[in-house]
Design a protein that fits this description.
By secondary structure, the chain is an alpha/beta fold. The chain has a single domain, classed as 2,3-Dihydroxybiphenyl 1,2-Dioxygenase, domain 1, CATH 3.10.180. Helices cover about 25% and strands about 30% of the residues. The radius of gyration is 18 Å and the shape is globular. About 5% of the residues have low confidence.
């Protein structure tokens, strides 16, 4: 591994999600995740899109001309490309109950993976995303990185 990256990122900029109906998707992401619009470019003839934030992360919803729906996946199907995007939640059990009451989540509850709880949802176009309750009430995996690195170093790995 190199000491200096070839490109030095200052931070994570945003994630873009292709959608077939901007209005429907803005409403969905607003209702489910609190998508807060900060730039509405639906009328841009080159690339209709809407930018918003979800928990401090910029999200771009981009109108696609394709009518082909996304193939639901939990990220384990092995196809190249984006495997998952995830938003951390404070209380997965409460989130699951609220989503299930609105018909947006199914099943018996979130999966437990180690000390994390996760739930897969799909948006109106079939794009899958993950909600995760991280250990130590962390807001992101990056927040946990120093602990993982220290543990790896201590074990000689």
């Amino acid at each position: 591994m190199t000491d200096r990256p070839l490109a030095s990122p200052k931070g994570f900029s945003h994630i873009a999600i292709r959608v077939t109906d901007l209005g429907r998707s803005v409403e969905f992401y607003s209702r489910v995740l609190g998508f807060d619009v900060f730039d509405d470019l639906r009328d841009d003839p080159r690339l209709p899109r809407v930018f918003g934030t979800i928990a401090g992360t910029a999200v771009e919803l981009v109108k696609t001309a394709s009518r082909e729906r996304g193939v639901p996946s939990d990220g384990t199907d092995g196809r190249p490309g984006l495997a998952a995007f995830a938003f951390a939640v404070e209380d997965m059990d409460a989130s699951f109950a609220a989503l299930k009451a609105q018909g947006l989540a199914a099943g018996d509850g979130p999966q437990e993976m180690g000390r994390a709880k996760l739930l897969w949802l799909s948006d109106p176009d079939g794009t899958m995303f993950e909600l995760i309750e991280l250990p130590r009430k962390a807001a992101s995996m990056a927040e946990l990185a120093p602990r993982f690195k220290a543990r790896r170093t201590a074990s000689g790995g």
